[in-house]
Amino acid sequence: MSSSEFIKGRGAQKNTPNTFLQHVYEMREDFLEFCRLEGEEAESNRTQYIPIFPKTIVNKVDSPDVGMMYSMNPYQGCEHGCIYCYARNTHEYWGYSAGLDFERRILVKKSAPTLLEAKIKHKNWGAQTIVLSGNTDCYQPAEQKFEITRKCLEVFLKYRHPVGIITKNALILRDLDILKELNAHQLVGVNVSVTSLSEKTRRILEPRTVSIQKRLETIRLLSENKIPVNAMLAPMIPGINSHELLPLAKKVSEYGALSFGLTVVRLNGAIGQIFADWIKKTMPDSAEKVLHQIQDCHGGSVNDSRFGVRTRGEGKIAEQIHKMAHLARKRYFGDKVFPKLNMDLHQQYKDSQMKLF
């Protein structure tokens, strides 16, 4: 395989160097040519599942730009391969690349349910919504094999603890039985990510995710079961999907979403290199235009770490996106309200439910 060929089924098309490592691993053209002549693979494109053993699982979120206080991630890395994903940079903390490694080397936390139970049973813990996940998708393909997310939901139900879920995978419907029980006590809210109404756009942006129609059907089925759904129309990428904001908002509202949220794309750390390489291979005619429009939203750079600005963007393009969002909420969501979750039940369930007697 020559280095210019497109790697199908993956978002990133290369491994960027790890910021924290002294040495760089590089595949030379002569080695790639040797593999081609010998009929061998230079590297495997198969996904690897690697068990890891964290000591804690619940993370406090200090960022003022994120609408959650606590999150947990059953998996690190994500096979969905979304090219814009801000979580890519975190894979470097584990010694891997934010590029292909992020999609092909999935770190699995089998102890997550046990660690979660210990956390929310602690005498000093007071109920606060914990979000699955603040980083990588808790219903990515690995979940079908390991069922860690389902086991965590069972813990939340056992202790009547509020939980939020963020996903773009219809696999969440597998756990509809637990979600209905949680919702009977007003303990769950779901955020479903819908980035485009175009399957062509979805396939290149998010290569191993379910179809747009399946995501819309997921919103519909959850809503029909009275489970509150917020649609995440994020990120908005100028020149790729930002023009779809109004029809996206209309569609998710029709399927039952009670609200929607959005962010303007930013390409921090290694993601800038990965995204630029990807767009020049997938959309060569418009690559420079898209990159310049992203820069226009962040003070002339694709990288933006300023609290209060980084997820909203600034400038005329970002301003137009937020004006469209305001119009969409007024036109398509009317009096719809996403409910607050119940924080009042957990305390009496902490000590093996003995306080009920």
Automatic annotation (TrEMBL):
Species this protein is from: Flagellimonas pelagia
Regions annotated as coiled coil: none
Gene3D superfamilies: 3.80.30.30
Keyword Transmembrane: no
Key words, A-Z: Iron, Iron-sulfur, Metal-binding
Domain Radical SAM core, chain residue ranges per copy: 61-301
Protein name: PA0069 family radical SAM protein
GO MF: catalytic activity; iron-sulfur cluster binding; metal ion binding
